[in-house]
User: Which sequence fits this backbone?
C-alpha cells in the first residue's frame, strides 16, 4: 500500500508550479496562434477559456477538492463561481482516449499552426515556442501529475476517471 501523505489542501508551491506549466502552455499557444492571424488567436483564447470553464463547472464541482485547494487550485476557484455538485458523480463514467481529444487540441492547435508558420516563413521564436510546448506537454505535465499532484490526491483514492484511463496503459 502507498504510504504517501494525501493532501486536504495542497501546498501553494505545488499549485504555483502546476499553474505555471499550464499558463506557459497557454501563453505559447496564444503566441503562435496570434502569429497565424489575430482571429485564430482570439478563437484559441476562447477555446482554452471554454475548456477551463468546462473543467471547473462540470468536474471540479463534483470533486473531493471542491472548495479546497487541489494540486491545481481549481477546486477552490470552482467553489467561488459554481454551486457544489455531488461527489458520487465524479467517477460515474469511464474515460476513453476519445474523451481526451479536446484536451489534446489545446496543444495540437498551436503545434500544427507553428509548423505551418515555419514552412511559410521560418522564425526562431516560433521554433523555440514549439520546442518548449513539446517539453512542457511531455516532461512538464508528467512531472506535475506524476510527482506533485496525482499521487497526493484524495480524489484519486476515491475514484478518478483519468487515473483509470492512464492505469490501463501500464
Assistant:
Amino acid at each position: 500500500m502507498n504510504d504517501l501523505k494525501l493532501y486536504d489542501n495542497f501546498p501553494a508551491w505545488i499549485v504555483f508550479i502546476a499553474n505555471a506549466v499550464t499558463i506557459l502552455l497557454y501563453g505559447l499557444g496564444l503566441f503562435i496562434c496570434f502569429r497565424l492571424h489575430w482571429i485564430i488567436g482570439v478563437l484559441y483564447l476562447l477555446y482554452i477559456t471554454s475548456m477551463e470553464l468546462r473543467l471547473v463547472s462540470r468536474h471540479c464541482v463534483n470533486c473531493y477538492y471542491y472548495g479546497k485547494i487541489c494540486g491545481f487550485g481549481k477546486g477552490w476557484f470552482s467553489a467561488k463561481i459554481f454551486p457544489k455538485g455531488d461527489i458520487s458523480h465524479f467517477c460515474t463514467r469511464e474515460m476513453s482516449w476519445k474523451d481526451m481529444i479536446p484536451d489534446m487540441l489545446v496543444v495540437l492547435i498551436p503545434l500544427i499552426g507553428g509548423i505551418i508558420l515555419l514552412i511559410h516563413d521560418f522564425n526562431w521564436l516560433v521554433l523555440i515556442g514549439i520546442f518548449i510546448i513539446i517539453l512542457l506537454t511531455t516532461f512538464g505535465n508528467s512531472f506535475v501529475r506524476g510527482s506533485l499532484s496525482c499521487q497526493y490526491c484524495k480524489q484519486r483514492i476515491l475514484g478518478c476517471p483519468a487515473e483509470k484511463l492512464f492505469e490501463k496503459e501500464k
Summary: Residues 144 and 150 are 8 Å apart (CA to CA).
